[in-house]
């Protein structure tokens, strides 16, 4: 589980632990996580650092038992294209495209042996034209297509691939953006609701699979943050 120390990643991790899974969570800042459980193991790793990423699986002693890979880590910078620094663009590319592709490649043989699953946490931004979301939305669209390609490629080997396309979800994703979810509880999703959807997808072997699902709140409302 990438991005496991907070928000959606932590909620999914807690749900999987409650179901008896041993969870290896990846986080850039694991020390910020307040959740502890004997089945929950946080690993410090900067997924934008290819050297750390290449060494990640070596730090999981029972990696050959891995049956689920969840790509959740992400961040976004929204700005006119000419105002996005090269550092921010590279960071988003590394986190949203490079890291998921490399991790998937490294784990595919194991997931084939275990008839496992890959879950991608996507975004409606990847399906729409987002104001100032030029790079972020394009990367999400790219990883959506990658998930669809993998579903087609890996299903013949018994590996189930799921793409969850999320709408507005109330997390600290919006901390450094100039907009955020509205106060109306019907206008945003909560991390535990996403975890419940993941539970429905991964529990049991029904003989069928949901390759793609979009989850949206009842209402669409956003608000601009007040400027200090």
Concise synopsis of the structure shown:
The chain is α/β, with parallel strands linked by helices and 228 residues long. It has helices at 7-18, 50-55, 86-113, 134-154, 191-202; strands spanning 23-27, 40-44, 68-71, 117-123, 160-166, 179-181, 212-215, 222-224.
Structure description:
The protein has 228 residues and is an alpha/beta fold. The chain has one domain (7-223): Rossmann fold (3-Layer(aba) Sandwich). Helix content is 35%, strand content 17%. Helix 1 packs across helix 5 (191-202). The radius of gyration is 17 Å and the shape is globular. It starts with 6 loop residues before the first helix and ends with a strand.
Strand neighbour order, sheet with most strands: 3-4-5-7
Mean pLDDT: 92
Query: How far apart are the first and last residues' alpha carbons, in Å?
Result: 36 Å
The radius of gyration over CA amounts to 17 Å
CATH class: Alpha Beta
**Biggest sheet, in brief?**
4 strands, parallel
Number of strands: 8
CATH superfamily: NAD(P)-binding Rossmann-like Domain
Q: State which percent range the strand residues make up.
A: 15-25%
Throw out a few tags for this protein.
single chain, 228 residues, alpha/beta, Rossmann fold, two-stranded parallel ribbon, globular
Question: Which helices and strands occur, and which strands form pairs?
Answer:
Layout: H1 7-18, E1 23-27, E2 40-44, H2 50-55, E3 68-71, H3 86-113, E4 117-123, H4 134-154, E5 160-166, E6 179-181, H5 191-202, E7 212-215, E8 222-224
Helix pairs in contact: 1-5, 3-4
